[in-house]
Amino acid sequence: MENFAYDGTRLSYLQRGDSGPPVVMLHNAGSSHVIWTPQITALARKYRVYALDLPGYGSADQPESGYTLDRYAELVRQFLLDRQLSRVAMVGNCLGSAISLTLARRYPELFRAVVAINPLTESTAMHGDLRVPARITRGLPDPAARALFDWHTPKWFARGTIRSWFSSGRAYRECPYVQPLSAGFPARALVGLVRDLSCFAALDDWPDREQLPPVCTIWGTENRVLSAAAGRTLNAQLRPERAEWLDRCGHVPMLERAPEVTAIITEFLATTDATDSHRHSEIPAESTPG
Questions:
Q1: Which of 41, 53, 50 is nearest to 21 (CA)?
Q2: Counting beta carbons within 10 angstroms of the beta carbon of residue 224, is it exposed (0 to 12), middle (13 to 18) or buried (19 or more)?
Q3: The sheet that has 88-93: what strands, in order across it?
Q4: What pTM did the predictor assign?
Q5: What is the C-alpha separation between 256 and 74, in angstroms, rounded?
Q6: Where are the beta strands (DSSP E) in the chain?
Q7: Is 249 helix (H, G, I), strand (E, B) or coil?
Q8: What does the pLDDT look like over 153-174, one tens digit per residue?
Q9: Strand runs labelled E in 86-240
């Protein structure tokens, strides 16, 4: 893993692939770059792939604060600028999708495509199983919330969380990546995120859709963490160029339906790459004076 630091916070990332356009992959809360293992190998044949560990998770820092959508988005943007990455394709899950869509909305010139898997918004969170812990956590007074910050979630808690990501016990048991994801994480990462959910409300409204690069959404129809029904309402606003609904699939389609999700991502990026290349080839070169 390599590291990047900005404003006192370090994220970690795995890079694979030596050539081609850049693809940046962002995981969901509670996980790490490990969830993209099945896709990294396939995508690295054609792209430069960067799979990040966001602060609070994996090999990244676990700061006392900063677990907000704006902070995550700015940290990722600075990573892209530092690595001089442009025309980036973002691939995210849950929190990673929210960061990707936020960046694409604010800085569309940096991106050529977004694959948003199970996007986290205030609506998709508050209509899914996350709504109960979210309401409790958001209602905690600041001293009580701070008391949770030093608690590191134990393995049994992490495994229970991971189990909720899958549509069935069999899919959970057969996943080879449960063990490396079961180390737990600091509670402050999830507490900070949930208490910032109101900032995710902006992602439920897309009056500026024409400003976005091409978007593909992927939902597991049996997602218990976020609401796939709310996801359909979100899609009506977002109007993605491609929308996939995977039956018998939960919160981590990239693990539960790895070959299918890999195919969707590679097909979508191939289409957007061709469009992006054609569009840029039509831009006339500046004439030389004289």
A1: 50
A2: middle
A3: 2-6, 9-16, 48-53, 22-26, 88-93, 111-117, 215-220, 242-246
A4: 0.91
A5: 30
A6: 2-6, 9-16, 22-26, 48-53, 88-93, 111-117, 215-220, 242-246
A7: coil
A8: 788 888 999 999 999 999 999 9
A9: 88-93, 111-117, 215-220
